[in-house]
Structures are given as C-alpha cells and as structure tokens.
C-alpha cells in the first residue's frame, strides 16, 4: 500500500506545449472511462445544438432523466407512511396489552375477594360444626377480615365511578383508589403476613391428627367444589401472593402505557408506592420474627440448660460479662441512648405499678371472699320481737346474697381479669429489653472493627433490628398499657360507686325502722365514726387475744408414732429436753433439718458450732441437725378431757392451784424446773365454742355474759356501720382494722 504523497504548491512557470501527435499511454480501464466521458460530452453538445422542441429523441431522454430524479422523493414518502402505519399498529398493540393488564388486575381482584369470602364464611362455618371442635380454629383466620375489607373497598371505589377498563379515565380512577387505600392496605396485610407462620404451624398440627385432617379435607372439598382445594393453606396463602402481585401488575400496565398519557405520572407514582409498601411489609415481618424469637418464654430444667452449653455459648457469655464489668468499673465507655433509656424507665415504672395494683386487687377480692364465706344470718339467734335486729339481719342477708356477690363478679370481670392479661403482656417487652442489653454488649465488641465477618454482621443487624423495633413499638405499648390501666382504675371507681348506690337504695327501705335514722347528717356520721372506731378497737383486742392463744404451746393428743418417738427421746435424753415445733421448718443451710409443725425433738446443744444461739442442735428421733430456736417450745404432756358440754362455760380450774381464769388463757405462772423433776401438767378445757374478751361485761357486744339478743344486735350494727364507712370513705380508722373487721 502506497503512502499518500503531499501535494506541492503549483508554480507559475509555463510548461512547453506537447506535440500534437503525441498521446500518453493509458491503462485499459482508464481508456474506457475516457471514452465514456467523451461520448457523453458529444451527446450533450449535440443536444445543445439541436432544437429540443422538435427532436423526439431528446424529449424521451429528458423524461427518463426526470423519472430518475423523482424516484428518491417517492421512496421517502412511502417509507414515512410505512413507519407511521407501523407506529400506529404498535400503539394499538400497546393499548391492547394495557387494556388486558388492567382487566387482569380488576378480574383477579374480584376472584381473589370471592375466594376469601368462601373461605371465611362457608368453609369456616362448616369447620366449626365438626365434633369434637377444632382447637384454635379462630387463630387460622386471624386478621383475614381486615384483608377482605380493604379489598372490597378497593373494588367499591372502582365501581362507584361507573367506568370500564376501556374508558380512558379508568386508569386514573384505579390509581387514585389504590393510593387512597395504601395506608389501610399496608396495615391489613402486614399483620396478616406477620401471623402467617403461626397459621402454617397450626395447620401442620392438624395434619398430624390423621382422622381429624381427613374430616377437614372433606369439609373443604364439599364447601368449595369449583376450586378443588385440599387444604386451608390453598386459600390462606392468597393474601401473601396478592400483595406481591400488585407491583407486577402496575408495572405491566405502566410498561404498555404511552408516556404522553395523562395518567402516566400518576400510574408511575402508584407503582412506586406498591413497591415501597411491599418493602415496609417485609421489614415489619422481619421485625416481628425477631421479636417472636426473643420474647417467647421457655421453661427449661437445669439439665436442659446444661445440655445447651457449648464452647460458642460459653465464649459469648464470657465476653458479655467482661464487657459488662468494664462498663460498671468505668474501664470502657457505654453506648448511651437517651431516648431508649427514657422509654425503658417508663416501662419498668408502669410494670411496677401494674404489679402492685394486681396484688392489691387480689388481696381485696380475697378479703371480700372471706367476708362472704361467713353467714351468721343463716342461724336462728332468737331475735323475735326486736325490729332493729330483724332489720339488720335482712340488710345483711341482702348484702351477702345479692349485692356483694354481684359486685365481686363484676370486679373479677372488669378489673381482675384484664389486669391479669395486661400483666402477662408485659413479659414479651421485658424479655426483648433484656435481650437488647445482651446484643448491645455483643455489638460494642465489634463496633470498632473495620471489617466484619458474616456472623459479626448478623450480630450487628440483630441489635439494630431489636433497637429499632423497641424504639418504634415501645412508645405505643406504653401508651396502650397506660390507657388500659386508667380504664381499669375507672372501672374500679365506678363499681364502688354502683355498690354505694345499691346499698343506699337498700337502706332507704329500712330507714324508718333503724335507730339513729332521725339524726342530722353531721351527727349521724359522727355517731357512725365513733361506733366503727370503738368496734375496731374491741375487735383488735379480740384478735390480739386470739393470736396469743394460737401462739400458745400445742396441746393435742399424740399419734401412736409420735408417742413411740417421745418414749425413745425421753429414754435417751430425759423429759426435760423434749421440745415441740410451733411451725414448719425448712432447711436452708448445711445440716439444717426440715420438720413439720408439732413434731417432737430433743435438745442436744443450744448453739451451733460457731456459737450462734439462734440455731439449736436437736435429735429428731433419728436424724440430727439444726433448727431455729424461735420455732421450739418446751413440750407439755396432754391429758384427755371428758367430752365437752353442749352449754357454754366461761371458766376452768387450773389443776395446780384452782385459780379461776378464762378457758383460753394460758397459765402465766412461771415454775423453776430441773431436768430430774417432773413438770406440772397443764389441762386446757375445750368446752367453749367461741372466744371471750377481758372486759368483764363492759363491752356487751362481744362479752358472752351479756344478753344474747343485745350482743347480736350490736355486733350486726358494727358490721353494717363498717360497711357504710368503707363505702362513703368517711371513716379514719386504720386500714388493717377495717380489713380484719371485714
């Protein structure tokens, strides 16, 4: 290949003329080209010399040349027409595809809604008729009603406009309807999808029971024969598939829509909204899976916990403990999140308040149940002819049989049960908060690393997920829990208001027949307060005496086995070292014994090896060990009394001195005994059926020496007045006294 030669500038010198007969030698191709050019030039010269209007040959040549000039213009117009026709055909084809995609979205939505209604109405009602009933059947259809509702609203918005998919305005109507319901669609589907794992687990439990599953399949096939379904998951998986098809259908419609269409921008926004909606639902589902994983409580034995230990778990817990110690000692800084710390503090404050309220309500109901268990009005107390006493009896009967039982039932339904449910709901957030602390310690160890491994990245993602979940959900939980708590307190107040109204209505029927009914309100309340306080004082004195009596040494006949043990201990250690337990003892330290109330032991040493006199070394007739000295009293041998008299007796004679004293009063005289001298025998008479106060008749309401009718009248009066004082909160007596009086 020859290289190009640069052209030199022409010089103004004239070359000598060439000879006339000299012709340069040319190649054959060049000769033919020169010949053709000479012929064309000759033809052109001839045509110019001849008159064109008179020569027909020249005219034909000119016409042929004009045809050749016009041919490119006609080809361009035909090509433009063909392209226009192809574009029109393509636009029609795209419009047809857009119409098909739009019709598919609407048709599949109607069919989807129809199948869900068949599942929730027909199939569900038929499954509920099975015997025995299916356990947790309603959990299979949890949150599906919300999905059906939002789908029906979407179709109703399309039907309200009365436009068909062929109408140009239908696309705009579809986009507006979807965008207006996007929030409701997300809230309905995210709860359903988060609960779908529980649905599949429940259906798997049904499949494990072959006879039950066979009956369920028969019911499903007979209820929906047109779809040939063999399980509930055929219907229940449809919402999971449907929410994922919305972006695909909308993107298909947008693909076949001309960008110049008036609704194209709205359609593009709707498609992006559906994609973002699916992303948020998936993220919420992932959060729920993490929450369900860490909020569930497991009851593991020590063996199970030991079996779960491995090198990885031991290393992880050791690293957490090390990091925690560094935080507490100030060696390493701790990540501080003020927003979360505030939420956590409020949660624990709320939890403590709910626990205290739950304990108080249970104590309140327990006292009320004990009060209702006593029915003195059922006994005939010989009150004929005394109208006030009869009125008090009728009032007490109405209170115990109708008013207070109804109040207790409403209290358990409106306050106690919701409070128990709310307390159980606190377990999940509490476990999640504790797990966040563990994950935070793990996250702090890997936070400063420049690159993370796959496992370390998973740890970081888990912490961020739990932290984000708590920051988003814990404020809502705290708000709802506080609202429920205020509602329970309001119900508690309203119940007592209704109780006061019922009691006021009851007392109005007996107002004229009761004493002190004519007093002024201030004088009446002053009298009621004084009466209640006086009754509470006497009742406290009685309770104190009863407590002293109950704490007295146990005096009861021994069983044959105990008598044998007593003989063995007496022969071995002597009668002076025999003691008896006043309460149950549970061993909590080394060499401690666990004994029951009333068992006999022999004292070996009144201190332990360290000189502690609160622990005595005893012999229990076989095993030896330590018991608290406060639980031991010297044993008193019991003598058998004759059968009790049916009549009340108020005195007994002490076998030692014959001094008259009350039947329940223990012998307070002290005697000095030696291990070799026998102890005096105490005899206690069990002929009294009730207790007696030390007033010597000064308080006839409780003293058995007073007339029976008067004591019953005053006792009932005190009970009624205590209820009045509790109801209107006008009494200033101690809370414990009121509870004991109840």
From TrEMBL:
InterPro entries to which the protein is assigned, alphabetical: AH/BAR_dom_sf (IPR027267), BAR_dom (IPR004148), DBL_dom_sf (IPR035899), DH_dom (IPR000219), Dynamin-Rho_GEF (IPR051492), SH3-like_dom_sf (IPR036028), SH3_domain (IPR001452)
GO molecular function: guanyl-nucleotide exchange factor activity
Keyword match Cytoplasm: no
Gene Ontology cellular component terms for the protein in this record: cytoplasm
Keywords: Guanine-nucleotide releasing factor, SH3 domain
Domain DH: 97-284
4Fe-4S keyword on record: no
Region annotated Disordered, chain positions: 1-53
Pfam families membership: RhoGEF, SH3_2
Matching PROSITE patterns: DH_2
Protein name: Rho guanine nucleotide exchange factor (GEF) 37
